[in-house]
Design goal:
This protein is an alpha/beta fold and about 325 residues long.
Length: about 325
């Protein structure tokens, strides 16, 4: 989405990030880029996938590079740019000057002439010119050794055939109205399902409400996902009950800022989803007010902006723990049948 404000915060990377797990695990770092997205996924093999790179200023590139160093990552094996809004793609040029990037995946061409898009895209094309470039289609795989990554949506299209162990009729279909269509880069978002044994994480980036309904009806094409990256920074133009109740996550992580995302309706849909346990937020949400998750699950509480992130360490049996870098709170979620 378009940037309406600038917020500069001190970045205090927690020492928690320095401790690699003792056993082979999947490590996921949700980096605070203040209302954008940047998620570092480190496979047990050491290969690294970076999902988006935040805004175009140097702050976010610095935070990503610092997190990578703390995680033992010296190069990004694959950069996935979900779409070309500046809060997702803007930081690529600055990041490429700090950290080697070996390959890039994106949906092809920018579809929206938003303010500043020409500058963002020119910098992006220059920065990625020498990289291996792939435009994936729904159903394709993103090759990171040790984990399985399936493209669910890309370029406004979606998977047609249900994934293995999916395909059950979605009983929630028809319970929610469609919303006005939005013609923007959000609709082109690349969404993925990351699997590591029995652990599954769904990240649909900024895919919109009506696209979610089309994806999940009449059948659930994805199946369950124990960890959900809340779509579109928690806005209510995404995050339908039709999607969330069908994938019935146990835990969700929201890439919001104090003044962006975190719509009150999204909190209600998450908490009313069967089997839902906890929401973790990168920031307190002013819009959500008393609907915010307890402060211990918020990396940057109200009025605090230290650039703290959230980490997930997952095992093949489906168990995972979530870590708040600010407070060092850790919570373990046991494997389920």
């Amino acid at each position: 989405m378009k940037r309406l404000w600038r917020s500069w915060c001190v970045f205090l990377l927690s020492g928690t990030a320095l401790a690699a797990p003792a056993s082979p695990s999947l490590r996921i770092y949700f980096i605070d880029v203040e209302g954008g997205q940047s998620t570092l996924v480190v496979a047990p093999t050491g290969e690294a996938l970076l999902i988006d790179a935040g805004w175009e200023d140097t702050r976010d590139a610095g935070r990503i590079a610092a997190t990578a160093r703390a995680a033992g990552v010296t190069a990004i094996d694959t950069l996935l740019v979900t779409h070309f809004h500046r809060d997702h793609a803007g930081g690529v040029a600055n990041l490429a000057g700090r950290l080697p990037i070996r390959a890039v995946y994106d949906h092809g061409e920018n579809s929206e002439n938003y303010k500043g898009s020409a500058e963002v895209m020119a910098a992006y094309r220059t920065a990625t010119a020498g990289m291996r470039h792939t435009v994936p289609r729904p159903g394709d795989k993103i090759p990171i050794r040790g984990i399985d990554i399936t493209v669910i949506t890309a370029g406004g299209k979606r998977i047609d055939t249900p994934l293995p162990h999916a395909g059950a009729r979605n009983e929630v279909c028809g319970a929610e109205n469609r919303k006005p269509d939005e013609q923007s880069e959000n609709a082109s978002s690349i969404g993925i399902l990351v699997q590591f044994g029995n652990f599954r994480m769904l990240d649909l980036s900024d895919v919109l409400w009506n696209q979610e309904l089309d994806l999940m009806c009449p059948v659930n094409r994805i199946g369950p996902a124990g960890l959900l990256v809340v779509s579109h920074h928690g806005k209510d133009t995404s995050n339908s009950g039709t999607l969330i109740r069908a994938v019935h996550p146990r835990v969700a992580i929201m890439d919001n800022s104090e003044s962006k995302g975190g719509s009150p309706a999204t909190f209600g849909i998450l908490r009313n989803s069967p089997g839902f346990e906890d929401l973790w937020q990168l920031h307190y949400s002013i819009a959500a007010g008393n609907r915010n998750t307890p402060e211990k699950f918020i990396a940057n509480p109200q009025g605090v902006c230290n650039g703290s992130g959230i980490q997930v360490v997952a095992a093949k049996d489906g168990s995972f723990r979530v870590i708040n870098e600010r407070s060092h709170l850790e919570k373990m979620y046991a494997a389920t049948e």
